Every structure is written in structure tokens, then in C-alpha cells.
From TrEMBL:
<dbReference type="InterPro" id="IPR018247">
    <property type="entry name" value="EF_Hand_1_Ca_BS"/>
</dbReference>
<keyword id="KW-0479">Metal-binding</keyword>
<feature type="domain" description="EF-hand">
    <location>
        <begin position="102"/>
        <end position="137"/>
    </location>
</feature>
<dbReference type="Pfam" id="PF13499">
    <property type="entry name" value="EF-hand_7"/>
</dbReference>
<protein>
    <submittedName>
        <fullName>EFCB1 protein</fullName>
    </submittedName>
</protein>
<feature type="domain" description="EF-hand">
    <location>
        <begin position="147"/>
        <end position="182"/>
    </location>
</feature>
<feature type="domain" description="EF-hand">
    <location>
        <begin position="66"/>
        <end position="101"/>
    </location>
</feature>
<dbReference type="InterPro" id="IPR028846">
    <property type="entry name" value="Recoverin"/>
</dbReference>
<dbReference type="InterPro" id="IPR002048">
    <property type="entry name" value="EF_hand_dom"/>
</dbReference>
<keyword id="KW-0677">Repeat</keyword>
<dbReference type="InterPro" id="IPR011992">
    <property type="entry name" value="EF-hand-dom_pair"/>
</dbReference>
<dbReference type="Pfam" id="PF13202">
    <property type="entry name" value="EF-hand_5"/>
</dbReference>
<keyword id="KW-0106">Calcium</keyword>
<dbReference type="GO" id="GO:0005509">
    <property type="term" value="F:calcium ion binding"/>
</dbReference>
Length: 194
């Protein structure tokens, strides 16, 4: 069901404040897009928002994302209340950071995507899983896992400032501020310039 004008206006006003990187008309467009996507998903939970699958389809269609592990991470960062659905508010506020976030916001966002178990650290195992997942496998004699272990060691050497064998948000932030290219070190989780 299309949202009534008054409700749309209220939502646009409040999201205009909380999703600070969009102007009102952009917020309104995103709300309408959300409604369209939810209607398209024909999901019986559509009233709550859209689920992980619909979200994945959207990430894939709109931003060319293909990595399931990363898309799940993106879903987790959008799904603030952890109910398994993206509400319209989570959608607009999430996109505000995803599309136009400040470096600060994007650092926090990428860190959350990479912190697979949500414990506040990116562990050696998490790095290994993400890199193993995103790198092309070369048919070679040597054990491909070795190369990935080496990459994880290099990442830790470069980014683990307090030398505790894992990355805290502070480590990650410091590393990215020194070298911006490290922002998506463990897999593409932000849209490209297009």
C-alpha cells in the first residue's frame, strides 16, 4: 500500500534530520524507492521491511555487489535493531552513510562490515575468511591458504598498532587515516564512484 501523504511528509521530515547527507527531495525519493522494492518483493513480511534476500538483490542490482559474505555484513550494518529486516528508516539512514558518509562514518561502517561476529574486533580468522572469499583462486602447486595467511600477516603488521593480534576500531581508523586505500582492505563494501 502506498504511504499516505501525511505519513510520507512526517517520515521525510524526521529522516531529513537523521540522514544528514541527503536533502528532503532525495529522502522522499529513497522512501518511494523503498516502497517500490518492498512491494516488488511480495514478501509476507513486507510490513516490517525487506529481508536479507531482497537487500542482496538490491545491492547487486544497484551497486554490482556479488560477495555474499560482504553483503551479509552490509545487511548487518543497515539492520540496526537486528530484527532481520531493513525498515524504511534503516534504509535511508544506512544509505546516507553508504553513499555519502564522511571518512569517519565510512571507517566505522567498513569496520562493522568486516567484524563478522560483531565482537568489536576484526580477528585474524575474520580477515582470513574475507580474503579467502574475495581473492581469485589460482590453480597452483602451493597451498593457496599460505598466500592468504601471508596477506593476513601483512595486514596485521600494517594495521595492528597495539600489537594484540587483532584490529580494534582504533587500529583500523588509524591505519585508514594513514593510508586511505586500506578502507576496503578486506573486500569491497562501498559503492564505486558511479
Amino acid at each position: 500500500a502506498a504511504m499516505n501523504r501525511k505519513r510520507l511528509q512526517q517520515l521525510t521530515d524526521s529522516l531529513g534530520r537523521s540522514a544528514k547527507h541527503f536533502n528532503k527531495s532525495e529522502v522522499e525519493c529513497l522512501i518511494k524507492l523503498y516502497d517500490t522494492l518492498v512491494a516488488e518483493s511480495k514478501n509476507r513480511f513486507a510490513a516490517v521491511g525487506f529481508d536479507r534476500n531482497m537487500f542482496r538483490v538490491t545491492l547487486h542490482r544497484a551497486f554490482g555487489m556479488t560477495d555474499d559474505m560482504i553483503m551479509d555484513g552490509v545487511f548487518r550494518t543497515f539492520d540496526r535493531d537486528n530484527n532481520g529486516y531493513i525498515s524504511v528508516v534503516e534504509w535511508v539512514e544506512g544509505l546516507s552513510v553508504f553513499l555519502r558518509g564522511t571518512l569517519e562514518e565510512r571507517i566505522k561502517y567498513c569496520f562493522e562490515v568486516y567484524d563478522l561476529n560483531g565482537d568489536g574486533y576484526i580477528s585474524r580468522e575474520e580477515m582470513f575468511r574475507m580474503l579467502n572469499n574475495s581473492l581469485l583462486k589460482q590453480p597452483a602447486e602451493e597451498d593457496p591458504d599460505e598466500g592468504i595467511k601471508d596477506l593476513v600477516d601483512i595486514a596485521l603488521k600494517k594495521m595492528d598498532y597495539d600489537h594484540d593480534g587483532k584490529l580494534s576500531l582504533m587500529d583500523f581508523e588509524k591505519a585508514v587515516r594513514d593510508e586511505n586505500l586500506l578502507l576496503e582492505a578486506f573486500g569491497p563494501c562501498l559503492p564505486d564512484i558511479k
